[in-house]
């Protein structure tokens, strides 16, 4: 990296109203520290407490998705203790200047083989209205997580429920076997 | 029986299961990476305690500020256990406490309460 590249990063961040940008390995400890920083920044800026909580909620769901599902990962011990997992991902928290809306974007590598399943799942969520999301949330909670899930299986629904607009997502091939998964939510 | 007390951490709530006074309290934030591990002790203790109750009174108070989607499942399971105990004839109360301005936690309380029939549910607001 040289100063030109650093300037470019800074310029992009400035243009996109970035409050926070992280690209690197996540762990539960990083989540706690960054989450705490975001809470303090929101409170210092007098952001409405309900908006601030929604931002925090979406941030936690996105980062825990990275920790659980990113294919770029280092498992520190054989017990696969979740506390010590390091998973690579990108998270951006920002505020659009024009609309004044907060957003949270994230990216992480997934297996190409999982793209279709994830796309179908997210497209379904994208087209649900408020009541539809609530209903799907309850049904999924009752039914229990599917075989691919390491949590309650309602993380995307939780994000969509906290978002003020339908969630956006995309995939881009990154290697023979991996794709970059991108998810964006407006609060 | 000695009270089960689990101190809060940055991402887990304070849990107090007071057998003598028939009270459970869960207070704080909940977003650990491994929720199952975090709540295992409480689940085991609460399950056997509720199973031992007959015509008894028991109150569970939830005062949560934030919880992640994995913890939602845990709370739902706790509500199920409490409702089951009420169905067996025990007098079960569930109190959902939230800050008066907190729409998120208020909404969660309303949604969770839809699953309770015989357990008595009430919402309490906390002001600054």
Overview of this protein structure:
The complex is a heterodimer of chains A (about 190) and B (about 130). Chain A is an alpha+beta fold. Chain A has a domain at about 5-110 and about 170-185: Heat Shock Protein 90. Chain A contains 6 helices and 6 strands; from the N terminus they run αβααβββαααββ. In chain A, strands 1, 2, 3, 4, 5 and 6 form a 6-stranded antiparallel β-sheet that branches. In chain A, a hairpin with a 6-residue loop joins strand 3 (about 85-95) and strand 4. Chain A is globular and about 50 Å long. The two termini of chain A are about 35 Å apart. The mean pLDDT of chain A is about 90. Chain B is of the alpha/beta class. Chain B has one domain (about 5-125): Transcription Regulator spoIIAA, CATH 3.30.750. Helices cover about 40% and strands about 35% of the residues of chain B. Chain B has helices at about 35-50, 70-85, 105-115; strands spanning about 5, 15-20, 25-30, 55-65, 90-100, 120-125. Chain B has a 6-stranded mixed β-sheet with strand order 1-2-3-4-5-6, covered by helices on one side. In chain B, a hairpin with a 4-residue loop joins strand 2 and strand 3 (about 25-30). In chain B, helix 1 (about 35-50) runs parallel beside helix 2 (about 70-85). In chain B, about 35% of the residues are buried. The interface of A and B includes residues 50, 56, 67 and 134 of A.
The H/E string of chain A reads HEHHEEEHHHEE
Largest sheet of chain A: 6 strands, antiparallel
Number of helices of chain A: 6
What is the annotated CATH architecture of chain B? 2-Layer Sandwich
What oligomeric state is this?
Answer: heterodimer
The stretches of 5 or more residues of chain B where confidence is low (pLDDT under 50) are none
| Beta-strand content bin of chain A | 25-35%
Rg of chain A (CA only): 17 Å
| Mean pLDDT score of chain A | 91
Number of domains of chain B: 1
Total number of strands of chain B: 6
CATH first level of the domain at 3-112 and 168-186 in chain A: Alpha Beta
CATH architecture name of the domain at 3-112 and 168-186 in chain A? 2-Layer Sandwich
Largest sheet of chain B: 6 strands, mixed
Distance between the termini of chain A: 33 Å
Structural class label of chain B: alpha/beta
Mean pLDDT across the residues of chain B is 94
Task: Please report the number of helical segments of chain B.
Answer: 3
């Amino acid at each position: 990296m040289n100063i030109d590249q650093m300037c470019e990063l800074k310029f992009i961040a400035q243009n996109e109203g970035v409050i926070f940008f992280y690209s690197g390995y996540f762990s539960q400890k990083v989540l706690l520290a960054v989450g705490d920083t975001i809470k303090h920044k929101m409170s210092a800026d007098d952001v409405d407490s309900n908006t601030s909580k929604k931002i925090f909620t979406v941030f936690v769901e996105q980062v825990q998705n990275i920790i659980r599902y990113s294919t770029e990962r280092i498992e520190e011990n054989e017990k696969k203790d979740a506390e010590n997992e390091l998973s690579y991902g990108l998270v951006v928290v920002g505020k659009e200047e024009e609309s004044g809306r907060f957003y949270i974007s994230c990216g992480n590598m997934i297996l190409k083989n999982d793209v279709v399943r994830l796309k179908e799942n997210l497209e379904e969520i994208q087209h649900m209205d408020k009541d539809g999301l609530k209903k799907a949330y309850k049904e999924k909670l009752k039914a229990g997580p599917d075989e691919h899930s390491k949590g309650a299986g309602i993380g995307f629904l939780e994000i969509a429920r906290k978002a003020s607009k339908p969630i956006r997502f995309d995939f881009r091939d990154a290697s023979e076997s991996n794709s970059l998964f991108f998810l964006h939510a407006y609060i | 029986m000695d009270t089960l007390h689990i101190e809060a951490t940055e991402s887990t709530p304070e849990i107090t299961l007071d057998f003598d006074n028939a009270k459970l309290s869960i207070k704080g934030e909940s977003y650990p990476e491994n929720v199952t591990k975090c709540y295992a002790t409480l689940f085991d203790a609460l399950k056997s305690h509720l199973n031992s109750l007959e015509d008894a009174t028991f109150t569970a108070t939830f005062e949560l500020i934030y919880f992640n989607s994995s913890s939602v499942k845990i709370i739902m399971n706790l509500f199920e256990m409490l409702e089951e105990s009420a169905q067996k004839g025990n007098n079960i109360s569930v109190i959902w406490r939230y800050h008066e301005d907190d729409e998120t936690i208020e909404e969660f309380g309303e949604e969770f309460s839809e699953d309770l029939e015989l357990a008595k549910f009430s919402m309490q607001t906390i002001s600054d």
